Amino acid sequence: MVVYLVEIAEMVVVVNCPDDLYLFDDWKRFFEEEWWICRQSTGQIGKKVDIRVEMGGVRMRKFKLVGRLDDLMVPRTVGKKIFFDNRLHPSWLVLEIRQMMAKLLADRGKVMLHASGVLVDDSVWLIAGSPGSGKSTALKNLMPSYKAVAEDVVVIESSGKGVVCCWPTPLNLKVKLEVENRAYPVAGVLIIKKGEGASIKKLGQADGLVVILDQVRNYANGPCAGKLAMEVARCLANRVFEVEYSLKMSLPKLMKKLWQK
Amino acid sequence: MAKIRYVRKKDLVWEKVEQEVVVLDHQAGKIYRLNETAGKIWSLLSQGREIGWLVKEIEKTYQGKDIEDQLEEVLKTMEKQGIVVAR
Fold first, then answer.
1. ipTM of the complex, rounded to two decimals
2. Model-level pTM?
3. pLDDT in tens, A185-231
4. Do A217 and B18 touch (CB under 8 A)?
5. CATH classification of A111-259 is 3.30.70.2190, yes or no?
6. Which of A10, A31, A44, A152 shows the smallest number of beta carbons within 10 Å?
7. Beta-carbon contacts below 8 Å between A and B
């Protein structure tokens, strides 16, 4: 059932995109702290504040979804304004900002990929998979032994000569990343699959290419980003491994088979 | 009446890998995998091509009956998927 939003909060924020794209913790702080404090401080549900988000001249696209998903309300935009109800979760706005970031990143020769990542010997192994495959669980499972570099979204660039690098997740809301904010070479990609067994299987190049493109396609929404996505996928296609494991088992132990080779 | 010419849709990104061609339609957010035969046809569509010309080219590699019908079917499927345009 579609429930239309009540126009409770309306706030204008004009933010110029910083040159350093990785300073988006400011966004996180704003939406997690300042905005909530602002709303609480009014003490009124009906208080209206404008929100307008502009980053590097890119404006928010119009939201297609207007409705209710689980217990979270989806915001909608009218012109340059975005409307939320009083139960807005910052993640919704973060998702939208990510789309804008994808465009900005493409302009700067980078592309976003739907994956997490852990640091192994100063290289990053990306963790991807279909929805519900256990990517987040896998990351948590690996985190006591390996530092997380990215959660859910990672920024990728091709450095030429087959080398792909990644940057830590901008706008990360869930996992505390304890790594330096710089580019790390990507060693390979793990495609996580929940199962009963414990196996690591290297995918063929065509399968690997398709799997990587599948993780990047929602962010590669322009000719420039499309070419970048294909370049990155081409470089990584022969380093993609399907990892099947049960949630009960230790993933670091299983991964040692691959990472200690 | 002018004959129909088939050409790849603009702005698609693709890669030949192993025996396949993988096509990314970034506007639609879709990925297509073309098998060896479809990949061969794809490689011939860099410019607008008439079906007769395509049949001759394909017959250099593949022999068999009804090549024209099969080719037409593949091209129509590609057109339906939005990766090939008929002019």
1. 0.87
2. 0.74
3. 999 999 999 888 889 999 999 999 999 999 887 777 677 788 889 99
4. no
5. no
6. A44
7. 53
